[in-house]
Write a structure and sequence with these properties.
4-stranded mixed sheet, 4 helices, 4 strands
């Protein structure tokens, strides 16, 4: 099973890095957050459009970073579109616990494509790469900060 996840990890990360989904400026976003990972220099701008009912109607990003950072942002934008803010917040909490190795009891199959990023917990320096977009999303959901870092 671990070999399958490792192979899938490489395939998904390479695909989303080479062809990131939702990699665009969103002119009509109602929340915009700048994210920065000083450890390796990853930078993203996350654009989110949330409707009056708290549903994420659109989400996109621009920026530059390593393959893991770009792939994680790309996957995240695909997954959270259409979610209510509370669902996205809960997913952030789960993903963060898994990526940091603080929760190994979660059934990875329940995470779908996100499960491939669970392997970053074995590489502590890469955890911040994988979670940058997620911290940016969390700030956008809270609608408080316009700049976040992984520090």
């Amino acid at each position: 099973m671990l070999d399958q996840i490792r192979d899938l990890y490489q395939e998904v990360v390479f695909d989303h890095n080479r062809n990131p989904r939702n990699f665009r400026v969103m002119e009509d976003a109602n929340r915009t957050v700048e994210g920065f990972n000083p450890l390796c220099g990853d930078r993203i701008t996350l654009y989110v459009k949330i409707d009056g009912d708290g549903v994420i109607r659109d989400v996109s990003f621009r920026g530059s970073g390593c393959a893991i950072s770009t792939a994680s942002a790309s996957l995240m934008t695909e997954i959270v579109r259409g979610m209510h803010e509370s669902e996205a917040h809960a997913l952030f909490q789960t993903f963060h616990r898994i990526a940091t190795g603080k929760d190994e009891t979660v059934n990875l199959e329940e995470l779908g494509k996100l499960a491939v990023l669970a392997g970053v917990r074995a590489y502590p320096a890469r955890v911040k790469c994988a979670t940058l977009a997620w911290h940016s999303l969390e700030a956008a959901l809270e609608n408080k900060e316009t700049t976040v870092t992984t520090e």
